[in-house]
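Annex B. Sample input.
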Amino acid sequence: MINYQLQRRIVNETNITEVVSEYVTLTKKGNSMFGLCPFHNDNNPSMSVSDKVKMYNCFSCGAKGNVINFVSRIENITLDQAAIKLAKRIGIQIDERKNAQALKEERLIKVMEDANQFYKFYLKNSDEGVKAREYLNNRGITDEIIDEFEIGLSSSSKDYLYLALSKNNHSSLDAINLGLIKEDENGDYYDTFRSRIMFPIKNRYGKVVGFSGRIYTESNQAKYINSIENDIFHKSEILYNYHNAMQPIRQNDSVYLFEGFMDVIAAKKAGIHNSVATMGTALTTEHVNMLLGLTKNIVLCFDGDNAGVKAMKRSCFMLSKYNNLPNGIVLPDGLDPDEYLKKYGTEKLINYLETNKKNVYYWLYELAYKKMIPSDLVSMETFKNEVFEFLRTTNVDSIHSFFFKKLSNDLDVSVDKLMDEFNKLKPKQVYQSDNNEYPYNYNQDIATNKDILPVPDKRTTKLKTLKVTKKIQIAYDSIIKHSIFSKDRFAKFFEQSTIDSVLRYPGKELVNQYLILVEIQNFYAKNDYLGIENLYIILENSKELLDFAIEIVQNRFINVTLQENFDECLNAIIEFYKKQDQINAYNEAILSTSSNKFYEKSDEYIKLKEESIKIVRKENNI
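Annex B, continued. Sample output.
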């Protein structure tokens, strides 16, 4: 990773206006330059670029960052690659020697790329390949599609891939860790994928990180087998065809989200280029960030069966946390896009996808309504509960109002009665599938939706809580700055600050620091180094948090620097919570007895209250 000091030097010495103008036509307005934002379908120049503050900012889609971030996004390269490119531009020499983890990832990707080359070669240059191509052509997958999606074939022989990789000097251990080969009880190696049509899976930078292999002959084996999770392949971070679809998504300002890669291929055959797939896994925070980085107009295209409906509900829940309201499409007769294409042809598939987009909640309502039997009370109750279930995934009043009226008409029950019953449900209830495929994640919710921050106890007393002093705010800011550059220091804060496993909520005065720390925690769960640029990226969907983080980085308090003693800040926070706990204990004791009016006049009660007030006054310097 390129260190922060060098990144800042590159940013400070690079004229961001000149760089951006090589990709976008800019026009001067006031003190800034404006142009069409390349990160969404912009018709009216909404992106400003300022060399004074060294930032670009789109007032429409919210994309913002410095020159490194801009080049990284527009060229779809890593931040390090963008930094190196810009450094060369201004004459800064960078030692491009990579760290151990980066070298390992590069080595593993090379193994996967060579495996992909082998599979492609075998499809086009073997007797088995003739039969496999015939199968693909019969399914409407032309040679052009084969080349575009780099479809290949694994041999029926035991170890053809193993021999090919060995010839290219790849280690057996790497191939095993990637799930390409296995070792039997005799110590002999054999290929994991055999007699299967191979679909390469690429990351957002277009590098092969996994495979999905499909049988094409009569067999009792599973129809598909996929690469195992490994150092470079995490399904939660992969959207199939994302690297190819980025530009079409921006141009169309919309994306079709399918369940499987064959759906994407079917859409491609129909001339629809702005589509991706989740590879059969639930929509994740990483997926949502990838999509919202390109467009806010998401169309969910899932099967109409039970699994598809569950996937749609899960996706609604995920997107609602980002205040995103997707459209939905459900193909008729339980068909997926590939099946619909075969049955009705290209023109009808395109027409259906373009003319049947509806608010996803409307689709969920219709699907639930179709199963209801009007004369069956149990069926009607089930229908009502299904509607309540998906309505709990959004806090948008207009959606609630619309569907309460619709539900009232269909059930012949008053709107007020339905609303009363709905509001009695457990607050902030969230969707979970019956088999817990998408469990409730407190950390993700807390970081993306302030509505589910802990609700304060509504019971009242005359006591005050500890005042959040400037010292505590500075301590939190410093902890955040240290955490940006050191996973170890964040771990020390997390483990030793007496904060519980989801980070302890410090109150409304520190809510932004709290939410930023939760995002840092989520990031470090899968990564070893954050850095300022990555922090800005993971916060870019929340303007308030991003602006606040920028203030912290730029030292919002005078004379506060990164060199402030980490341990002193940590100890200050620990002491803050200890004293708060002490006061809370007094509060709880008082609250537990305050219902007894006679006890309130007793010496014991008065003494208890005086002690708690004394602590509060002492700590708050009253």
